[in-house]
Amino acid sequence: MPQLAIKEPHTPDELVGTLRAIREHLGMEVAYVSEFVGERSVLRAVDAPGFEAVAQTGASFSLDDVYCRHILAGRLPELMADTGEYELARQMPITSALPIGAHISVPVNGPDGTALGMFCCLSTRPDHSLNERDVEVMRVFAEMAGKPLAEAIAERQLRDYARSRIENILAGDGLTIVYQPIWTLSGRTVRGFEALSRFAAEPYRSPDKWFAEAFDIGMGVDLEIEAIRRALTALNHLPAAIYVSVNASPETVLSGRLPELFSARRYCPQRILLEITEHAEVEDYEAFAKALAPLRKAGVRLAIDDAGAGYSGLQHIVKLAPDKIKLDMSLTSGIDTDAARRALASALVFFARETGCAIVAEGVETEEELMTLRLLGVSYGQGFGLGRPMALPQALELVRAPLRVSPGARA
């Protein structure tokens, strides 16, 4: 038999290619790598031409129905040139069902020696030419496959853990909403609040990391919808002149779930400001505008968040015609001493006047910044210098104070 050169596979295609090379080298018909998941053996990579109906990636079998557990326990050998010579194998339904005439199987171990799965080759007929050297070939490959399989299992476990964390947040009280006031810069009155998410669950980290993780595992829209749902309940308590601003990614807008959410409790649409972050990429503006159309027709206002932080924000502004443009805090910070920041802000103020939208400055922290923004023609602002995010009871106290609410609160 010619020498077989085995190279360590680094991609799924390379893994299947190596399986094929070994299967053909041994003259066998099926080769696969499996992973133990609970009480089942799940096929992770398969080369089985003609046997796709029973051996395909993702197929799973009870460990009671396959040889794996018996081989690991020593009740069956790793090499069976003829399964008919072993009473336990003859008694197992899978032997006659496939049928399995010859079988080689070795464990795929993790770094700590734990069996993560098996590397198996089989034929429908006995083959007495198979020997221990063939088993050694299998062991060499199984050792190579152990590292990527262990990495894949670890990654999957992390994703499962992340999914569990997000599911617990959605079902419990790990997500709370705080409200940062948005002020008129001229009269220093509260016009609205931006709803911001806070997470009490472990690991303790910033909200953007929670949302990023949720999107990584396909639950980002669910988490944003839940945050918006909780945020909008404030409209039932705040004065009718106050609006609430909520954040949504393009994925959430395109999901089509917002119209039902906004109308579910008969909220006044004019009291809702929908913020689209500048950092979020919109691949198809026509489809995005179509998804926004029923919301805007109902009266929901649109804002582009973090304007000035990058090129995509200008794209959003030009193509979506927002009702509000929110200046990013990187543009607001130090604007009183930086001519370049003032020039860019002035350009956006001019654009807003020409197109009939309003400017909200984020991250206002000093009186000097506030006065400069007022002189530039910026109408609204928010930031630690004006008011930190607060729980709803504190927000209610703020708007009940004399001269704190601006009349006619159209978002």
TrEMBL record:
It comes from the Bacteria. It holds the Pfam family EAL. GO terms for molecular function: cyclic-guanylate-specific phosphodiesterase activity. Residues 159-403 form the EAL domain. InterPro entries: Cyclic-di-GMP_PDE-like, EAL_dom, EAL_sf, GAF, GAF-like_dom_sf. PANTHER family: CYCLIC DI-GMP PHOSPHODIESTERASE PDEF (PTHR33121), SIGNALING PROTEIN (PTHR33121:SF76). This is EAL domain, c-di-GMP-specific phosphodiesterase class I (Or its enzymatically inactive variant).
